[in-house]
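Annotated sample (chain length 574).
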Amino acid sequence: MFNQFLKSVICFCLFLSFFAIAADNKIEDYEIKGISGELENNVALYLKPFVGEKPTRSLRRYAKSQVEDSLKALGYYSSNVTIDFNKEHELVATIERGSATRIETLNISVNGEAKHDPLIQQVIESLELKQGDILNHGMYSAAYKKIESVLLEHGYFDAKWPARKFEVSLKKHSAIITFTIESGVRYRFGDVLITNQSPAEKYIRSLAPFEMGEHYKASKIADYNLDLSSTPYFTSVRVYADISARKNSQVPIKVDVLHKPANSYEIGGGFNTELGPKVRFKWSKPWITEQGHYLESNLNIAKKQQDISMAYTIPVNNPNDDLWRLSAGYKLEDELADNIYSEILTAQLQRQWLTEQKWIRTAFIRREQETYRIGDGLERTTEMLLPGVSYARKQSKGGTTPYSGEQWSISAEFGLDSVLSSTNIVRVQLQHAWLRTYLNKHLVFLKANLGAMLVDDINNVPYSLRFYAGGDQSVRGFAYQSISPENDNGDRIGGKYLIATTAEYNYQFAKNWRAALFVDGGTATNDFSEQFEIGAGFGFRYLTPIGPIRIDHAWGLTKESKSTRLSITIGPEI
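Output written by the structure step:
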């Protein structure tokens, strides 16, 4: 009798000791058995918080309920879950997932004006919820949020949801999803209300991309905000629909603006391997007359290049795209390219407006006087009067760090030696850049720059109008403007024709870092007898709020020396 009592005491002590030791231990990891793929990943999210906790009975029960919830979220309601703690201080979840619960019926009914709105119907048809699919709580919530978001974006501000639910039959392993939507009316744009007095009221109203009474669309509010922010008049802009003041099926649009001071100043700087350190100063006077005339002046200073410019702008209707501009400037380059000196005085009158296809069209006439020296030759002074036209268009997403975009620039100009010019010339240039991102991490960037001149003798063309290739923005691996035809003295005299291309691949391996591989090719030539030069290399991109800092190391593959060059530039690709 005593021996049996002693054995019981010993067993009880061992039992207490085991749990005392377990209580002192902590879970160091977890293991999931019986499932894989998306199910395993979802269960892991629920188990991860248990690492570092003590393996108690209550935790075992809680962990089991969490795992069961994680399986239900992906449509498995009849799972069998066992939770254990092993000697390696791991929480072990052994799972039999059971049968999947599938969507038996999907009932989505819309009443109100949205019932006959093709856009709303298109959104409903594009939902990832489909009859016969496995029930997924995340997709169910995403479908609701998507419909709700589209309704708000398109002015259904009174929309209600009398029914939004799913019902699960454990016996049949099926689910019935029901969405009932009472959309109410679709509101229209009301009056534009400028909340504080502004001398720019005319332009604020003219830039509105909608008419009063037009169906509401949130993207037009965003476009309106962006257009106003792009004008030279405001330091901040806020455009929003005053939903609380909606009535008579219209919603008023409020515009809050904060004006720039009478004079504003900006100081900045930068660095690249061609110019070295540089400093920039900008002065602007955003409101000179009641018609919104404005003045801007820029000064840029680097060791090898200095320039100053001033522009007086007269808006016609749109101060961003419909305007007259008179500008003047001075630019000095000394040894920016080897053995080249250039000094330019310029004045230009231009008329700029936006086409229906969203191209910025600019007609201009430019007067230039340039004094330059190439190599050991004598200084020459040329004068040109160049009328011309250009078209430009840029579309990008991502702000200063674009992930998608396309940019075009096309220009043509001519001069006549009988009309205030040193030579007869016709000059055209086309530039195109294309950027796309795939699977969030893979970025492809392509660029081309083509140019041509119709002129009798390249030696009569001002240095600044000649074509050169090479440098950080051209064929990397070659020095700035080092790709060029040469004269008998070996001086690079520039060419009548230009071809420069880039193909670049970026891989984003961290939040703010990309690795890059690239190939550049190009030539500047007078008769296409020169070699097509090729550069290639690798680099890194550090993503900042002002754009990527691009560090490249490139080889001039077709150079005799095969030497390499390091280049550093700041700013977006497009």
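Annotation: The first strand starts at residue 29 and ends at 33.
Annotation: Residues 119 and 125 are 10 Å apart (CA to CA).
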